[in-house]
Write a structure and sequence with these properties.
alpha+beta, globular, 3-stranded antiparallel β-sheet
């Protein structure tokens, strides 16, 4: 399927794809909260982008959990001088910067299976991301000032992913074994409309 897709892209768009972003399903997704520190070494005690990178590097080098692979590290907020801020506090003065992070883990065997499929298609993996995190960033759901709970619904051919977001955090993700056709059948039965109408209702009102 991947090779056929690459061929269609090459023929129709005249583009040769060699590198991809690997999006992993949120199957058995686990979230772990961590506070990670970075000392300030600037002569004027100013926070630099290097401090942010330092926090991320420490996060991604955390000791692995049993049978799990760390995929995403997301800084929820920063703490400096006793205050909490959501934006990167570049050039702010402090002696130590603390990042409040969420680490998202996926089962290791799933990661390797997906990576193997991509490599067999002779593609290079640029980066890896959990689908619920990727969707939130694409839809700008990560808003730290929004105190309402939001549910992201990803309907695919064989399953549906439900993702719970709150104040710029992916709190939980659940996968239902309900695919696109089952949603269409349910819509048609509930609204008493033909399958063609239910199909249009689903595809014309949902972003896939």
């Amino acid at each position: 399927a991947i090779e056929k897709g690459l061929e269609n892209i090459h023929v129709n768009l005249r583009v040769q794809i060699s590198k991809v972003l690997l999006i992993l399903p949120s199957i058995h997704l686990q979230r772990v909260n961590r506070f990670i520190h970075s000392d300030i070494h600037d002569s004027l005690n100013r926070v630099s982008i290097d401090n942010i990178y330092h926090i991320y590097r420490q996060a991604m080098s955390q000791k692995p959990l049993a049978d799990l692979e760390l995929i995403n590290a997301e800084i929820y907020q920063y703490k400096l001088n006793g205050n909490h801020v959501f934006k990167m506090p570049i050039n702010e003065k402090t002696s130590r910067l603390t990042g409040d992070l969420d680490l998202y883990y996926v089962q290791r065997d799933i990661v390797y299976q997906y990576a193997l499929i991509v490599e067999k298609a002779n593609l290079q993996i640029l980066d890896v991301c959990v689908d619920s995190v990727a969707v939130a960033k694409e839809a700008f759901i990560f808003d730290p000032l929004d105190e309402t709970y939001q549910i992201g619904v990803q309907i695919e051919r064989q399953h549906t992913t439900l993702s719970l977001y709150y104040k710029s955090r992916l709190i939980h993700s659940e996968i239902l074994l309900t695919g696109t056709q089952q949603w269409i059948d349910a819509l048609a039965a509930h609204l008493d409309v033909p399958l063609e109408v239910a199909t249009r209702l689903l595809f014309d009102n949902v972003d896939f």
